[in-house]
Specification:
It is a single chain. The radius of gyration is 21 Å and the shape is globular. The protein folds into two domains: 102 residues, Alpha-Beta Complex (Aspartate Aminotransferase, domain 1); 242 residues, Aspartate Aminotransferase, domain 2 (3-Layer(aba) Sandwich), CATH 3.40.640.10. The chain has 13 helices and seven strands.
Length: 372
């Protein structure tokens, strides 16, 4: 056999400009320091620290005992898709049939499926900043270009139609909107969503609406849940992929169950993507998710308890950071994050010399003070 010199390339052009997850990097570093004997407080991963509610766990255990451990249809089992469609109409004002619902291995996979199905080379996708770390890489993996739309603390970390218009080009294909937001906690009200929706519909853009933190809202008229942009009217719904799941609301991060709801043509395209990468979401996870939606009183009690705990922690954290020199904060209206502007302390703490060194500041907090 002929001996060929060299070794195969490790990374393909598909990964050009696609970094690893910064959240997972910090989490890994925190775990490494713990193994070395350090005492570490980890606030890095977006994960509730509660157990999955007992009735949901019981449904998963029952599924295993009953042998429901085989492949399911790619789009998910029919009872779960029916329950999701009913939930969307009842709670969000979104009318979708079960065949307009796709169940995936977490909301992250729904977003990935949507990016791969709807965007491609030459397309541009608007992403308001600050943003969840995986939004731009997903767009790049689809060979499209993420276009960052900057917001600010003075605007509540929210984007508006004028801000989007400044970045609009003939290549703009879509918008990724996250409300309640990771990492800022910003929650868009119906009037704000209506302006964004009008802009997107007028320019023929897809809206990928990440609503995974929908039930975690505080101190506002949205306390019953953040409004859904697709629920505004049918024309907006025709341009929208609603992305949601069970990880945050029901403390089910490890079960890996999310869902997307969209016009049938978009769901069919997303289903093709999923059929070639993960086939289907966990059968056991789907059984547990069905219990979360159908055993509504038990779920309501559990969600209310967790939300109350998050709200208490939010109050304590806001009070603790209030007035801290060089740190600017805005109390988050939703989710379970507080996003601080630390540019005022970077120089004095030796963690960096400009706003672009926020990553260095986080590394410094972890290595010097054990806070991830």
């Amino acid at each position: 056999m002929t001996q060929l010199s060299g070794t195969p390339a490790v990374a393909s052009p598909n990964l050009a400009g696609v970094p690893g997850s910064e959240t997972l990097r910090i989490s890994s570093l925190a775990a490494e320091l713990r193994r070395a004997g350090r005492s570490i407080v980890s606030l890095s991963a977006g994960e509730p620290d509660f157990d999955t509610p007992e009735h949901i766990r019981a449904a998963g255990a029952a599924a295993i005992a009953e042998g429901k451990t085989r492949y399911t249809p790619t789009a998910g089992v029919a009872p779960l898709r029916e329950a999701i469609a009913e939930k969307l109409e009842r709670e969000n004002g979104i009318r979708r049939t079960p065949d307009e619902v796709l169940v995936s291995a977490g909301a992250k996979q729904v977003l990935f499926n949507a990016c791969m199905a709807l965007f491609g080379p030459g397309d541009e996708v608007l992403i308001p900043a600050p943003y969840w770390v995986s939004f731009p890489p997903m767009v790049r993996l689809a060979r499209a270009t993420p276009v960052i739309v900057t917001t600010g603390l003075d605007r509540g970390w929210k984007v508006d139609p004028e801000g989007l218009r400044q970045h609009l080009t003939p290549r703009t294909r879509g918008l990724i909107l996250n409300s309640p937001s990771n990492p800022t906690g910003a929650v868009y009200d119906k009037q704000e969503l209506a302006g964004i929706a009008e802009f997107c519909v007028a320019h023929g853009l897809w809206i990928l609406s990440d609503e995974i933190y929908e039930t975690l809202c505080y101190d506002s008229a949205e306390a019953a849940g953040a409004p859904s942009i697709a629920g505004l009217d049918p024309e907006v719904a025709a341009h929208t992929v609603t992305v949601n799941g069970f990880s945050k609301t029901y403390a089910m991060t490890g079960w890996r169950i999310g869902y997307g709801a969209a016009p049938r043509a978009a769901i069919e395209a997303m289903e093709i993507v999923q059929s070639h990468c993960s086939s289907n979401a966990s059968s056991v996870g789907q059984a547990a998710a069905l219990a979360a939606l159908t055993e509504r009183e038990a779920s309501r009690r559990a969600v209310t308890s967790m939300r109350s705990a998050f709200e208490r922690r939010r109050g304590r954290l806001v009070a603790g950071l209030d007035g801290l020199e060089g740190v600017a904060n805005r109390p988050p209206d939703g989710a379970f994050y507080l996003f601080s502007d630390v540019r005022g302390v970077l120089d004095s703490r030796g963690a960096g010399s400009s706003a672009s060194s926020a990553d260095d500041f986080c590394d410094w907090l972890l290595r010097e003070h054990g806070l991830a």
